[in-house]
Structures are given as structure tokens and as C-alpha cells.
Design goal:
about 140 residues, mainly beta, five-stranded antiparallel sheet, single chain
Amino acid sequence: MKRTIALLVLAAALSPFIGFGAESQTWVCRKCGDKVRKAARPNVSYCAAGGNHDWNSLGATGSGIYVCRKCRMKVEAAARPNVSYCQTGGNHDWNLLGQKGRNPYVCRKCRLKVRTQERPNVSYCAAGGNHDWKAY
């Protein structure tokens, strides 16, 4: 009996951390820019910009690393993220840097850090021109 109760307590404690098969998405608040990974729409309360959050889904979380050329937001996504509501105005302009991996790189120009399987894509550095990746 004690073992059954202990297992039920453990299951209840871990249930918020188990997705139960739900696909995780990346959510961004249109007002404050907070980024959250969650299967369902996050809580709207207490936006740092005042009032409630206004969440926008960028899509399913995955192994592709994308960066917006305009606002420099970095996202791990299964496919090209949703382009709506860039913080700088208008739409995001996503650039695929590569697939998530163990090799750390930093751009010498814009200081963007990523971990990819291979050397990241050099196109569209925020500091101008192409990225200058260095393994670290």
C-alpha cells in the first residue's frame, strides 16, 4: 500500500514535466518578447510590458536552428518558424543556421553562439555581411 501511494505521489509530482505526447511549440509574447517552449498556450498573466502577454506560436520545436535577420531571435524549430510579429516591426526573416548538435560556434562579428552538427551557415550576419564562425 505504501509503495502504491509513493508511486502515485511521484507520478503527480512529475506530471507537469511530462508532455504526454503533446508536441512542444515555441511561443513568443508580441509585447515583451519573452520566449517559452510549451505544448499549449502559456499563461497570459503578468507581462513585463504591462497587462497580459499576447502569445504567438512560432511552430513546433525541433532540431533546426533559425535566427531572424531583423530581431536576432534564435529558435530551435522542426520547420521554418512562423514569420508573424517580429519585434522590430513587420515579419520575421528566418535564416537556417544548421541542425542542433554538440559543436559550439560563435560568430566573431555579432557574437551569436550556437551548437550545431556542422559549421553553421555563414549568410546574413546582423553585424553586416557574412558570419565569421569560430569553434570554441
